[in-house]
Amino acid sequence: MQGSVAHHGSPLRGYYNAVGRSTVEVVKTLRSQELDAMPDLHRLHTEGICREEAMWAISEREGQTKGWWLGHLGLGHNQMYRGEALTIRGLQGIRNR
To answer: For the segment 22-63, what is each residue's pLDDT rounded down to a tens digit?
Structure first.
């Protein structure tokens, strides 16, 4: 089992790193005024960026700024899933780094 996880972990780590680098590049170009603006949630939905299944959660947070969303999705939300993945690894006996 551990060999399988190690083998499949490399592409996932590559994806994780690529998304991280891309996010940093985008964030570096943002001006502070943009972070204070409100996102166009309707556009995000109609353009397929936010799935129908997620609209209830998004609409509950309507009125939050782009900066809030960036912090929530870029930090908190992703760390929640990372924590779940590390917990599963630990339960499988795979040493976390």
So the answer is: 888 988 998 989 999 998 888 888 888 888 888 887 788 888
Tell me how many domains the chain contains: 1
Nearby residues of 1 by Cβ (< 8 Å), 6 or more positions away: 92
Residue 15 included in any domain? yes
In a domain, 57, yes or no: yes
Per the CB < 8 A criterion, the answer to whether 41 and 62 are in contact is yes
**35 and 66 Cβ atoms separated by less than 8 Å:** yes
Q: pTM for the complete prediction? A: 0.57
SS (HEC) of the chain: CHHHHHHHHHHHHHHHHHHHHHHHHHHHHCCHHHHHCCCCHHHHHHCCCCCHHHHHHHHHCCCCCHHHHHHHHHHHHHHHHHHHHHHHHHHCCCCCC
Task: Flag whether 97 is in a domain.
Answer: no
For residue 35, what are the domain limits?
Answer: 2-91
